[in-house]
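Quick one, tokens below. Sequence please?
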């Protein structure tokens, strides 16, 4: 995949003849019919729940390719939201040429109000919680763990959207049960951990540690659990190079943690307006997404 400059990046889409349902932090969502939606991954950059004015060229294409790779690999473990509908049947030739590599048509489902986060290593907000309380999401952990240390087994540390604003808040398993019921909660936890373990084993064989990741699920008309959104991408996971991993420090990454780390050096209060990002940081971020794709999916895919 050749490199691209910012002028060819797609910040926002406007598709002829389709109703725009929502414009998220990264994705534009359109209605296909009563049962299906078109999801377009743009090149918008979101960090700390703020959308930046500068896109990361090719980011949406890379996220789509990586997600589709994992959807295919995990389809025997859990049903996913991908449909068999063809994009060219619903958009103009011009829109198809521009958007095909960054679009999926999915089944419209009832989304569960829970983000299924699985952690295999202790880092990020989990590390902050642990150093403050010795626990993450109510799960008590052994004393003396170091930053970025691998846990004895992966843990399920869910989050949900705050009622005000768009920030995620960590919740206990009991709070998830209150939201979606015990049976669904157990199912989500079990499948999320299975997906993580399978992906982590594969990624490690390719030279990447998946430190943690986030899954989202929906419910179909038969009340069956369906994997939705994106999965195991640099936007929803922490990817570390195996050969540079060291316990006790925050490892370098193939994900947007690089951008977060840069933003933490600025005098910025993490509320809009977003600061301008130097071109060198944008270029390096694009390279990290490209490297994650090439290592996990393959250069020629």
């Amino acid at each position: 995949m050749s490199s691209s400059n910012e002028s060819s990046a797609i910040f926002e889409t406007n598709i002829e003849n389709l109703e725009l349902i929502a414009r998220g932090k990264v994705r534009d969502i359109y209605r296909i019919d009563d049962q299906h939606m078109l999801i377009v991954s743009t090149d918008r950059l979101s960090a700390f729940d703020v959308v930046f004015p500068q896109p990361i060229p090719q980011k949406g294409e890379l996220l789509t390719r990586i997600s589709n790779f994992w959807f295919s690999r995990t389809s025997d473990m859990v049903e996913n939201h991908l449909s068999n509908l063809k994009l060219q049947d619903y958009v103009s030739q011009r829109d198809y040429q521009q958007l095909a590599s960054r679009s999926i048509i999915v089944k419209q489902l009832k989304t569960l109000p829970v983000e299924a986060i699985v952690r295999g290593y202790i880092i990020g907000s989990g590390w902050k919680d642990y150093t403050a309380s010795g626990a993450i999401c109510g799960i008590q952990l052994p004393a003396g763990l170091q930053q970025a240390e691998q846990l004895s087994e992966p843990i399920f540390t869910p989050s949900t959207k705050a009622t005000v604003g768009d920030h995620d808040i960590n919740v206990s398993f009991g709070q998830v049960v209150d939201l979606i019921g015990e049976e669904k909660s157990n199912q989500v936890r079990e499948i999320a951990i299975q997906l993580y373990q399978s992906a982590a084993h594969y990624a490690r064989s390719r030279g990447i540690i998946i430190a943690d990741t986030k899954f989202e699920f929906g419910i179909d008309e038969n009340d069956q659990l369906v994997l939705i959104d994106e999965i195991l991408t640099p936007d929803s996971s922490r990817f570390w190079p195996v050969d540079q991993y060291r316990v006790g420090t925050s490892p370098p990454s193939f994900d947007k943690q690089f951008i977060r780390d840069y933003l933490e050096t600025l005098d910025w209060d993490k509320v809009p307006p977003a600061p301008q990002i130097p071109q060198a940081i944008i270029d390096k971020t694009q390279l990290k997404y490209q490297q994650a794709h090439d290592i996990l999916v393959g250069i020629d895919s």
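The chain has a mean pLDDT of 93. The helical segments are 59-74, 93-99, 124-133, 173-180, 182-205, 257-264, 279-296.
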